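Quick question: what would this complex look like in 3D?
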Amino acid sequence: DIQMTQSPSSLSASVGDRVTITCRASQTISTYLHWYQQKPGKAPNLLISGASTLQSGVPSRFSGSGSGTDFTLTINGLQPDDFATYYCQQTYSFPQTFGQGTKVDIK
Amino acid sequence: QLQLRESGPGLLKPSETLSVTCDVSGGSIGSSSYHWVWIRQSPGKGLEWIGSIYYTGTTDYNPSLKSRVTISVDRSKDQLSLRLNSVTAADTGIYFCARQQYRNSGLDPWGQGTLVTVSS
């Protein structure tokens, strides 16, 4: 199985901050990497697909980059609605594995 | 707009069979070349991909669960099903269904999930 490792596991930030979350794959996955946002009691919501393609309706302050094994999710200008847990997922090979999540909370 | 809604037993005893369904509305489960996916979430293991079924009926399963899991589709009901045999406490979690446009795409949308607890 491909292991997905996110860092940090949690972070505290203030409204307006720039936040960066990284995701590393245990082997190359091209750009078959997707980012999700999950709020308590809700299902994950797809934010970015193919490492860098913003989904329809997702604010432009979210961006993704990377290829191969190293990927980044950036939030430019954190908003109150962005406090949540973020997950990466690889769909390069089965089983399609997820990172352990990064919880973003209020400083 | 496509919507997914899971239903499950809530509480199971060890060794019983978990059976969860996912009702698809706002679209037909068999009309387009999508993959339909089951994922679960537990405090101990985070998000875990269980398996998927293509609209043709071809399935892929997580090797860690393959001996116990069956995913199927009922096109007449626009319903996706998951069966997991011989459950233990480790199978406790929230079970989600989701759609995947291509095998390598992200998952969108997801259902709201259904909590299944395994306890004696």
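Answer marked as accepted. The longest strand of chain A covers residues 18-25.
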